[in-house]
């Protein structure tokens, strides 16, 4: 039977980096559900489609082809968009598209199918609440808003993206509001999820903490 590790949490907590390391160390298949929502967002942006244009969004969803490849490579309709889906413009709109029922109804079953026959570690916003409410391990990875903004600001600098710290912080705060207040699948910690606050932790410390939780579960 497949072993499922669900890691939820807001942007900038280190979910992606931590999850990829855990996957390699423990032989899990790594699935970044956020990349899927980013692909839908990017496709809509490229077509000039707004979040309130339901008919056009449904047309996109009917034909969209998203492939998550090893090493965080993402293909959208046959094109490598691994870098393009991480731009500030996509950051700005992804929460608005991700909250739509039509989008979640399309992507959630695909995500659930990915965990049926393989040991997976899946990161996102609603993995432990909606996608895999019966996951073997549930982690809620959190971090102070200011530190999340600082990390995203540094990531942008490394990628050559010009955006001030204040702009990044404003975007992080607004996205957090949208994700926690949305009606469908809001970002929230379940009672059975283990909280890990990465504010003052290194990546290695976070990885080791979660790895110990997985190890204990496997030994039960």
List keywords for this structure.
8 strands; 52% helix; three-stranded antiparallel sheet; 220 residues; alpha/beta
Can you tell me about this structure?
- Helix 4 runs parallel beside helix 8.
- By secondary structure, this protein is of the alpha/beta class.
- The model has no long low-confidence stretch (mean pLDDT 94).
- It is built from nine helices and eight strands.
- The longest helix has 17 residues.
- Helices cover 52% and strands 15% of the residues.
- Strands 2-6-1-7-8 form a five-stranded parallel beta sheet.
- It starts with a strand and ends with a helix.
Sum this structure up briefly.
The protein is α/β, with parallel strands linked by helices and 220 residues long. The protein has helices at 15-26, 33-46, 54-63, 88-98, 101-114, 127-131, 145-159, 165-181, 203-219; strands at 4-8, 29-32, 66-68, 74-76, 79-80, 120-124, 137-142, 194-197. The longest helix has 17 residues, at 165-181.
Number of helices: 9
Taken in chain order, the helices and strands follow as: EHEHHEEEHHEHEHHEH
Give the number of DSSP strands. 8
- Gross morphology is globular
Order of strands in the sheet with the most strands? 2-6-1-7-8
Largest β sheet strand count, sense and barrel closure = 5 strands, parallel
Q: β content, as a range?
A: 5-15%
Q: Assign the structural class, choosing from mainly alpha, mainly beta, alpha/beta, alpha+beta, or little secondary structure.
A: alpha/beta
Mean pLDDT, to the nearest integer, reads: 94
**Cα-to-Cα separation, first versus last residue:** 15 Å
- Computed over alpha carbons, the radius of gyration is 17 Å
List segments where confidence is low: pLDDT < 50 over at least 5 consecutive residues: none
- Which percent range fits the helix content? 40-55%
């Amino acid at each position: 039977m497949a072993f499922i590790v669900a890691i939820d949490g807001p942007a900038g907590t280190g979910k992606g980096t931590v999850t990829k390391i855990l996957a390699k160390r423990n032989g899990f298949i790594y699935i970044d559900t956020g990349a899927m929502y980013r692909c839908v967002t990017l496709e809509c942006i490229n077509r000039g489609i707004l979040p309130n244009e339901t008919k056009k969004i449904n047309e996109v969803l009917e034909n969209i082809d998203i492939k998550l490849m090893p090493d965080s490579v993402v293909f959208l309709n046959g094109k490598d968009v691994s870098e393009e889906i991480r731009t500030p413009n996509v950051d700005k709109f992804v929460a608005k598209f991700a909250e739509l029922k039509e989008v979640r109804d399309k992507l959630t079953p695909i995500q659930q199918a990915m965990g049926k026959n393989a040991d997976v570690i899946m990161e996102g916003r609603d993995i432990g609440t909606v996608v895999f409410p019966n996951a073997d391990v549930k982690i809620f990875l959190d971090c102070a808003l200011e530190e999340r903004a600082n990390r995203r600001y540094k990531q942008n600098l490394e990628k050559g993206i010009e955006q001030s710290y204040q702009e990044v912080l404003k975007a992080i705060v607004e996205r957090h509001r949208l994700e926690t207040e949305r009606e469908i699948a809001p970002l929230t910690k379940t009672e059975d999820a283990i909280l890990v606050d990465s504010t003052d932790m290194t990546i290695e410390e976070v990885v080791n903490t979660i790895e110990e939780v997985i190890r204990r579960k496997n030994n039960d």
